[in-house]
Design goal:
heterodimer; A: two-stranded antiparallel ribbon; 11 helices; B: alpha/beta; Rossmann fold; five-stranded parallel beta sheet; 15 strands; about 15% strand; elongated
Chain lengths: ~300, ~425
């Protein structure tokens, strides 16, 4: 007996807690991947990242409404279609924003912080004007909201599994794109030395636009996935932005491996502490630990060696 | 009639002549509202420089139209506008049509204070209907007390406050909480409770009251867990595991805002079936269910004073009027209904007091009865400016409405400073 629980209880709780930690890890990683590309590769502090996520969520909402109205028999497949739409909608919006706003600010990285913060307010108000201030309920296929019972006391949420699979797929895709494709080579070349990359014939403007677009597109996918676990309202993006930056900064900007490691560390710490402390205290402890570690290692956990 | 500056200089001889002249005219030739205004000259009903003319009176609406609270405050704003348009259609207040000045608190508490000051100091509003969160009310309270304004506050809240300048049309915590706990203890045989809330004053105070009641007044009952999450938190898997482990008879939830959506979706995904596990919430109204999704919360009990499904003639008419004005799809939650009471209670109080002066309203409020309220008969408490009201328990349905399963037989006395619960 430990904390007044029986051994069987403890076993199933450890299993479920482990799983809760993994789900949180997937959620954090999915949130952070898009930002890791934009912040890590381009050095743009995109405060509107949460709003691109919510754009994806609203697209998923519209998509599920459309399915209900016109193709109710195909509703079970609506979510997969919604994710694809969310990726392209957020990605195109991102490319437009890069063209209209961001590309003028590459030489002034701190100003991107203010500009994208303004952008996030504008996007929130657009959502509010179109969809209303109230939350919208995204209808999901029934099978996605249930759970799998592994034993009498262990239930594994299906939406958690979906988020994990999705995160795994996107992480692999991002890895292949950045480190194994020609285009990724160009991105990395631009990151390391913009002038030189341009001199050898890389269209740096185009690379920037697609990088930003893909980062925003991934944010859209994350937003689409989070309709399963969170709320969809004009300001819901704000709920994610702090955690997202925390993961990216803690992991070390520019390092995909660092983002993964940091998402894992933070999520496991938080989910374990939440079990033993109250939710608020768990967050306080995690934030303190992160602040402490960043004081010792200002560059984050993993540092990409770049000649400045 | 042009808005003459003489409204605020009642001693103007020209004005007196005008009024005498009007009184001398045969009543039949005048519009009814002008005739009534003439019965009560402006100089008599407004001695403190409020924005009252012979045929209009200005009131303020102060809610968040932007920012994170807009989603909650929209319904309250709509209800207040509906009530005001109905009052105007029925002849206004003391024969004067209500003019509305609307300001946006923008989910920011200093902005609320600043806008409240504007409504009172430069618009001279006779009454203000507004605020939603306790934080915004606390921010405007000093302004209302300093400039002697009148605020009608619609949200159920934690109590521990009473002001001459505020009428609280929502329930204070003990009204909302105690009856629900008694019911769940008696009807469901509940002995163990797990309290979970968002981390700010209302859930913490509410859970404190709930804990005192569970441990002190319900025999053999205990609290097996108490947990708080920051506002906007979206991850509840760990606490859901804790709940599964402690196996409480009742999950008692006062999670608010967007967190609600995450909480109920994750509860369902974790295999907690609300048809078997009793959950009682004091923070989910029909408004929140729109975001949560009826299928995710069906089976939960909510404990408050109003549900849209209440079956009485007042409410049927209210729901129909609301939908006519704001669309067939709109839903009405507890706070929306409480907001609707504000303008009506103010009108009745003004008529009882025979004038708009804030001091007279504050003094006359005690005992004012509104029997056309959608929630049924309500009465302002003789001394503490809160409302006597019934508490009801609703069972959430998959269509997003509540089925009322219990209603307290009597009106519950508001007790904002409950002895033994602090």
């Amino acid at each position: 007996m430990l904390f007044g629980y029986s051994l069987g209880d403890l076993g199933s709780i450890m299993a479920m807690q482990g799983f809760a930690g993994l789900i949180l890890f997937s959620v954090f990683l999915l949130m952070a991947l898009g930002l890791a590309i934009i912040f890590g590769q381009m050095g743009v502090i995109n405060m509107a990242h949460g709003e691109f996520m919510i754009l994806g969520a609203y697209v998923t909402y519209l998509n599920s409404q459309a399915f209900t109205a016109w193709m109710p028999s195909m509703f079970a497949a609506s979510f997969a279609v919604g994710i694809v739409f969310a990726f392209f909608a957020a990605g195109l919006a991102g490319m437009f924003v890069e063209w209209a706003l961001i590309r003028h600010l590459y030489k002034r990285p701190l100003d991107t912080l203010l500009a994208t913060w303004g952008l996030s307010l504008i996007m929130q108000q657009i959502f509010r004007s179109i969809f209303g201030a109230r939350e919208v309920g995204v209808e999901l296929p029934g099978w996605m909201m249930g759970s799998v019972s592994a034993s009498a006391s262990i239930d594994i949420p299906i939406n958690g599994i979906i988020v994990m699979v999705l995160t795994l797929m996107i992480t692999i895709a991002v890895y292949l794109l950045i480190f194994r494709s020609n285009w990724g080579k160009q991105v990395r070349a631009v990151v390391q030395n913009r002038g030189m990359a341009s001199a050898v014939g890389i269209d740096t403007g185009r690379v920037d636009r697609y990088t930003f677009g893909i980062g925003c597109g991934i944010a859209g996918v994350a937003g689409s996935a989070f309709t399963m676990i969170g709320s969809t309202s004009p300001t819901a993006g704000q709920l994610y932005i702090v955690d997202t930056f925390l993961v990216v900064v803690f992991g070390g900007a520019g390092s995909l491996g660092g983002t993964i490691a940091s998402a894992f560390t933070i999520s496991q710490a938080r989910s374990t502490l939440e079990f033993f402390l109250s939710g608020s205290m768990a967050q306080v402890v995690v934030l303190l630990a992160v602040v402490g570690i960043l004081m010792l290692r200002p560059q984050g956990l993993f540092v990409l060696k770049v000649r400045r | 009639m042009p808005e003459a500056p003489s409204d605020r200089t009642p001693s103007s001889p020209f004005r007196r002549h005008l009024l005498m002249g009007m009184a001398a005219l045969p009543a039949a030739t005048l519009l009814p509202r002008l005739a009534r205004a003439a019965e009560k000259p402006t100089a008599e009903v407004n001695t403190t420089g409020l924005a009252v003319t012979d045929d209009t009176v200005t009131c303020g609406i102060l809610h968040s139209l932007s920012g994170t609270m807009a989603l909650s405050e929209t319904g309250a704003t709509e209800a207040e506008k509906l009530a005001i348009s109905q009052i105007n259609a029925s002849g206004g207040v003391l024969g004067r049509q209500i003019k509305v000045v609307q300001e946006d608190g923008a989910s920011d508490w200093p902005t609320f204070a600043e806008k409240a000051r504007k409504l009172l100091a430069s618009d001279h509003c006779a009454a203000v209907f507004g605020c939603w969160t306790s934080a915004s009310r606390k921010a405007v309270l000093p302004v209302f007390e300093q400039l002697n304004g009148m605020l009608y506050y619609p949200t159920f809240y934690e109590g521990l406050e009473q002001s001459k300048n505020v009428i609280y049309t929502g329930q204070e915590a003990t009204q909302q909480i105690l009856a629900g706990l008694n019911w769940v203890n008696k009807e469901k045989g509940a002995k163990t409770f797990y309290l979970i809330g968002s981390d700010y004053i209302w859930p913490r105070t509410s859970n404190k009251i709930a804990r005192k009641h569970i441990e002190g007044h319900l025999t053999g009952c205990k609290v097996v867990g108490e947990d708080y999450f920051p506002l906007g938190s979206t991850q509840f898997n760990s606490v859901i595991n804790k709940i599964k482990l402690t196996k409480p008879d009742v999950i008692y939830a006062d999670v608010v805002g967007g967190s609600n959506v995450a909480f109920y979706k994750q509860l369902k995904a974790a295999g907690i079936d609300l048809k078997k596990q009793t959950l009682m919430t004091i923070s989910v109204t029909e408004d929140e269910i729109v975001g949560i999704g009826g299928e995710n919360i069906a089976g939960a009990y909510a404990c408050m004073k109003y549900f849209q499904s209440l079956d009485n003639p007042n409410n049927v008419a209210f729901v129909a009027a609301f939908k006519k004005m704001f669309g067939e799809k709109s839903v009405i939650g507890d706070v929306t209904q409480a907001a609707y009471l504000g303008p009506w209670l103010w009108k009745l109080t003004v008529e009882k007091a025979g004038g708009f002066d804030v001091d007279k309203i504050a003094a006359a409020s005690g005992g004012v009865v509104f029997d056309k309220a959608p929630e049924g008969y309500v009465r302002i408490h003789n001394t503490n400016h809160h409302l006597w009201s019934r508490t009801r328990i609703g069972l959430a349905q998959a269509d997003g409405q509540f089925k009322v399963v219990y209603e307290t037989p009597d009106l519950i006395e508001p007790n904002p400073f409950p002895a033994g619960y602090q």
